[in-house]
Amino acid sequence: MMTNVNKTLFIPLYGKAFVSRKHIILDDPTAEKIWDAEAFPIKGKSKSKWLSYNMAMRARIFDDWTERMLKDDPDALVLHIGCGLDSRCKRVHAPYKNWYDCDFPDVISARQKYYEETDNYHMITLNAAEPEAVKKLPDSAEVIVVFEGISMYLTESELHGFFAALQEKYEKIHVLMDVYTVFGANASKYKNPINDVGVTKVYGIDDMDGLLDGLNIRVLSEHSLTPARLVDELGGIERSVFKLLFTGKTYRKIYRLYELGNS
Fold first, then answer.
1. Which residue, 180, 229, 171, is CA-closest to 202?
2. Given Cys at both, which of 25, 185, 213, 229 links 56, Cβ 3.0 to 4.6 Å?
3. What is this structure's pTM?
4. Which domain holds residue 172?
């Protein structure tokens, strides 16, 4: 049985299915299929169309980034940490040598109903809060780490331990991760859709340099979570309202997206 934290995977799943059916931002027939099959009783803010647009944009940004990383080095190992029921392994079209979707045992069990392993695609259980688990991951000279929608469930100490383990394991590291700010984490007690599935505790990060202190991993750049090219796929009044709510300075005070690496 899934924990409340693991049930949060249904929120982005719903959003991706909702947007995919509108034929904008994200093409995700697998999300549509799984959402229909699971019939999870999502409610409240979790069903907001604005949140769905956000979830789809975030997924598309991570997809495009992963695609770029793989085109630069198709031999790199891809680790999707906290994969949930996401179909990124299908949405990314660049060829890959090894892709590992990682999550808790109950999530992987649910995932195995919809995905099949191949010679280069695998599903494994992994808790990012346990550095020893990282040491057991496959070897590779280069790793691409998709860290979407998970940092807010880990303390700074746990995140530091995860990155330290990555650094010890892999020579060249690429990471894309979204984070709440401390303000955003505090505000989420009152307005976060994850409250609808029983999650009330999340963590925020204001000092990324402090988080990575002592490591050779650093922040390479910050990306927009609502880039104009994707916002423009919305129509008319929805585009105007979305720009007002999610593309200004206030949004960045709540939620950020960072690219990390050691090169």
1. 180
2. 25
3. 0.93
4. 4-261
